[in-house]
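Researcher: I'm comparing several assemblies side by side, and this is the next one on my list. It has 697 residues spread over two chains. Same procedure as the others: predict the full complex and return the structure.
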Amino acid sequence: MALKYIEEYRDGSLARDLVKKIHSVSKKDLRLMEVCGTHTMSIFRHGIRSVLPRGVTLLSGPGCPVCVTAQKDIDAFVEFARVKNVIVTTFGDLIRVPGSSSSLGKEKADGADVRIVYSVFDAVNIARENKDKEVVFCGVGFETTIPTIAASILMGIEGKVDNFSIYSANKLTPPALAALMETDGVEIDGFMLPGHVSVITGTDAYRDTFEKYNIPAVIAGFEPIDILQAILLLIQQNEAGRPALENAYPRAVSDAGNIKAKQIMHQIFEVCNASWRGIGEIPSSGMALKKEYQKFDAAIKFGMDMPDTPEPKGCACGEILMGLKTPEECLLYKKKCTPMTPVGPCMVSSEGSCAAFYRYS
Amino acid sequence: MTEEKILLDHGSGGKASHALFSDMILPLFENSELSKQDDGAILTVDGTRLAFSTDSYVVDPIFFPGGNIGDLAINGTINDISMCGAIPQFISVGLIIEEGLPIKDFQRILEAMATAAKKAGVKIVTGDTKVVPKGKADKIFINTSGIGIIPPDVNVSGSNAKPGDKIIVSGTIADHGITVLSSREGLKFDSDIKTDSAPLNKMVQSIIQSDCDIHVLRDPTRGGLGTTLNEIAAQSNVGITIEESFLPIRGPVQGICELLGFDPLYIANEGKVIAFVPQKDAQKVLEIIQRDEFGKDAVIIGEVIEKDPGKVFLQTVIGGVRIIDMLTGEQLPRIC
């Protein structure tokens, strides 16, 4: 069975042609940043770095939701797991992320009821089936995930599921790009913008940031052809000195994005400030439940307010996320910090740049 | 710090499992047979070489498309013995049953075991049954052990890979793991995939009884092809390179992997063999495998190289290179 939209975009000869074009166009040394964990993974999985000109460096930015989750939020998840009669539901990657004192995986081994779900709707169903328990969902995601979390709240209201709540550590992408551009020392010659996020936000969501900073930016899909094409466009824009905001993923992304998803998201959530691991607070980069939906807010329901805790000493996740360091430049990398004994979330999440570097290089 | 505990990760077949074995199990049990770390131990009794292997099965759910925990447990041990180059003869069965398991389910599992043993031509000669209170086990766990005889002149081991060897895989990868996953609660995929669980003893016999040299045989179960190739690269102290475009993967399996973010290289197989064969014999061995009922899709996927010992490389479809490491982190718990 041929897989439409996979085989065409993994075509070997097409890819080799693109690589040739990239080599012929590329003159300057460039630092290009992808801001999506799936891009990071795909770049490694297809060996894309190994076919690029030496002068082109790919940096993995703050695009993996687990990696940008602040230590205090991880600590909150662990605390929920310790509350009697609470079932913590989460996407798989969070299980192994170490908080200040423990991880969800360790709490699970200690007897806590921690369940991996593939969709937030499964968490609502678990709540329906366990009326005598409280079900908390760890909300860690970008614009791609937030609308479904919002829909789960609507599902909870409709089904009168009052033992379900979420802890929102959700984040928005465009403010993070702006924050990066404002950070001293950050040198980026172009952004490969996230395909999935852009399906929801649309190209328009990046216009303000683009106009302010005038930096090459290309929305990319996830197959090797998509990524090579985006890299070629970013190089061409740089070589010609003509930055532009381009959509190289038009089969999925429109200018306006998914209007219905955005509507649901803004019906339930409102923009707030958010803490990003290693970067700190970024204004208007988070999503909190609106007042009228606060009975679904796990933080309020359980009075959970964890103190800000410093990240582990030596962990360079923040600098790596901003492209200031590569994983190899972190003192803990491959020594104290490995996928077996991760110190920071970038080593745990399959989409984290440290884990990807460790696994594939 | 909380006290160190066993985590699911320790049972993944990947890095944590290996660390558990080498740091805790091997130092206490150490002997020359165990230290070889092949799929089974090779024992010499009165001049006859025996292969002895054991495995436990905790798959969830216990019934899945193409099989159940019963035939899985029989085929698994038959294959472990076969990978030592042995002809499996006798099998033991240990059953740990949770109170409340429907008798008709138990009957189905026993029947599957009987059929699998008969098909492979092995006898189930001893066993044990225990029942534990409800909630103290999950439906049924099965342990099987087996013994096989290694014909004279046969010498296969994970430590025998040599530069220049071609690497053959006997068919499509990741079928079992993805089948079990997709039959789990909450993940119903509408597809026709089924487990590849199968006895490989006849296929293995026909290749070891040919006049071809066989260096390594291994079944890439837990941890998948990627982890198994890493084990062999480390045991034989050689490098390995494989071609992504040669990897046989069924469309629906690939599709589910893409959807859920799994890498088929790390997904369990239960009816596949990887054979390392000197180049001069590679084509012939490939054809023998292809003639077997479970080897129709067999292909050569790569070769052994002298440089970068212990490392496994994948030549990607686009002409790039990436390293294939062992599985780290539990990709899918309770798959076998």
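Model: For your comparison table: The two ends of chain B are 32 Å apart (CA to CA).
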